[in-house]
Amino acid sequence: MKTTGRRNPSSPIPKRPANALPPLLGEKGQAAVTDALYFLMVVTFLSIFMFGFANSYGNSIREKIGNEYSTSFATNALKTILYASTPREASKTVYDADAEIDYLLAVIKEDYSDDAVLGPTERKVLGRTVSAVMAPVADTKDYAFYVTIPPQEQTNKQGQFIFLYLHTTNFKVDASAFSSQKVPRYFVMASAGEPSHRDYFCVVPAGQGDVDYSDLVKRLSRLFANIGPTAQASSQVKLVQETGKGSWFDFRAQADLVMWDATWLGATRDRQAGLFYGESNGPAEIDPAWSCEEVM
Amino acid sequence: MSAPRVKTAEKNNPQYSSLAAVPRPNAKNKGTAGAPWPNNKNTGMASVAFGLFMQSRHGYIGPIGDDFPSLIPLIFGLLMFFTAFTINFDSFDNANTRFNADVTLLRISRTLQSNSYIYSYTNFNELCSQIGVVNLKFAAALTEAWVNPSNATRGASGKGAFGILDVPVFRSGNNAFYCSNQEPLSPLNNNPRVSNFVTAESSADRLLVSRVFPIVVEDDKVVKPMHLVVVAWK
């Protein structure tokens, strides 16, 4: 028999089964509760989405502002280094009344012109200026400042590193963390060592060996490719060299400043060869190809 | 939202009445087998409360009675939505305020840096006057604190590292190289500092942003490397 769902008033009232649920629970109000629960579910998802969106809101803007600041700082720092005056003696400062002051770039040009290398005094003067200019960010950033002569056919100049100053954070690496399988391969457990930072003069002629220009360019490229975001500034400078007959010729050189967030530059489980250090840091672990000496 | 109403004839019929159909937990049938009421031995307070609720004959069936259970998640959902909305709106507002402050600070410092070479006190003042109106209070100063870190230029205590508010303002003769759109909090003496304009105490509950940039200043025919410190606050 077909039922319509509506009871005929003249027909007898059907009896409810004895074990049936109370009618209020079984029939009344369930649709409304279900609607409300759906509403609650939608609102919950919406709230979660809003929280997620608010949490990530502005991350890219914050990153861009940070990058803008780093790039600005690097550009200004390079200008400052190249414009600055400096005392000719490493033991004095521009604030000493009796110091003989000259432009830093002039001192470098003059010293390079006679023997095509930068002497130890000039190296210290330049290194100290770089360190002073970069001091506000030295605790959180590592950086490299270098002056190079790119290979030039016109002047028959071979590629050469004239000066390379490297400021690194002295991380004390927890070697046991490398062996733990629970630590992801790309994690390095490190804390600040003593001293907290180390500075190096590299491509030093009195170092462990001759510096190969193209090899060092490759090493620097590998370093910059593995340390995350960098802020870089470059500027052309002109150097001169004596020919031996009392005449001079000038050629193009380049000054570069690269800074990055302090990063472990040694080997990791993913990186068998360190970027600058070996398995543990320290001057003894630096590859001789860099020809470095620590700044004391 | 509400379920179909029971007709009057059915409502008056004790067999069809919803409450009449349910044996109530009185002394006679409490705990009887087959009844929908739970046995007292196996129930807790919740069942008792439920029983007492079901005992009430009036007001349960009707617009309020039917909709009441659905109002609880509805109100809870609305409460949750508006709470989340308010929190997120505050978060957006804070982030936008911070970004505006950062951008304003970069604009001020870019104006003051010019080409990173300040050749005189007059030149510095000209650059300062170019800043114009900004929506933040700011103080900018040239300092040699990092380049010439003698004890005299260190923090107020003269020891250890200095905070950015402690940096001394560079002086050349009687000229102090600072620029601000605020009057100093304390009189500038012979050793002016950024803290003459804003202190850690005065900015405790405010948004405060700061930046440092290298710069060179020509002073007495010597081009000195220095730093430009810019501090801005709400």
Key terms:
heterodimer, A: 296 residues, 6-stranded antiparallel β-sheet, 24% strand, elongated, B: 234 residues, 4 helices, 7 strands, disordered N terminus
Short description:
The complex is a heterodimer of chains A (296) and B (234). With 296 residues, chain A is α+β, with helices and mostly antiparallel strands.
Point out poorly predicted stretches of chain B: 1-38, 155-159
Number of strands of chain A: 8
Largest sheet of chain B: 5 strands, mixed
For the record, the count of structural domains of chain A works out to 1
Largest sheet of chain A, order of strands side by side?
Answer: 6-7-3-4-5-8
Give the assembly state of these chains: heterodimer
- Taking pLDDT < 50 over at least 5 consecutive residues as the criterion, the unreliable ranges of chain A are none
Task: Please describe what this structure looks like.
The complex is a heterodimer of chains A (296) and B (234). Chain A is α+β, with helices and mostly antiparallel strands and 296 residues long. Chain A has one domain. Helix content of chain A is 33%, strand content 24%. Chain A has seven helices and eight strands, in the order H-H-H-E-E-H-H-E-E-H-E-H-E-E-E. Chain A has helices at residues 23-26, 30-56, 59-83, 104-115, 120-133, 176-179, 213-225, and strands at 85-87, 101-103, 141-149, 160-173, 190-202, 230-242, 248-261, 293-294. A six-stranded antiparallel beta sheet of chain A has the order 6-7-3-4-5-8. Chain A has a two-stranded antiparallel ribbon with strand order 1-2. In chain A, strand 6 (230-242) and strand 7 form a beta hairpin. In chain A, helix 4 runs antiparallel to helix 5 (120-133). Chain A is elongated and about 130 Å long. The N and C termini of chain A lie far apart (104 Å). The relative contact order of chain A is 0.13. The mean pLDDT of chain A is 82. By secondary structure, chain B is an alpha+beta fold. In chain B, 32% of the residues lie in helices and 17% in strands. Chain B contains four helices and seven strands; from the N terminus they run H-H-H-E-H-E-E-E-E-E-E. In chain B, strands 1-6-7-2-5 form a five-stranded mixed beta sheet. In chain B, strands 3-4 form a two-stranded antiparallel sheet. The relative contact order of chain B is 0.11. Mean pLDDT of chain B is 76; it is low at 1-38 and 155-159. At the A-B interface, helix 2, helix 3 and helix 5 of A face helix 3, strand 6 and strand 7 of B.
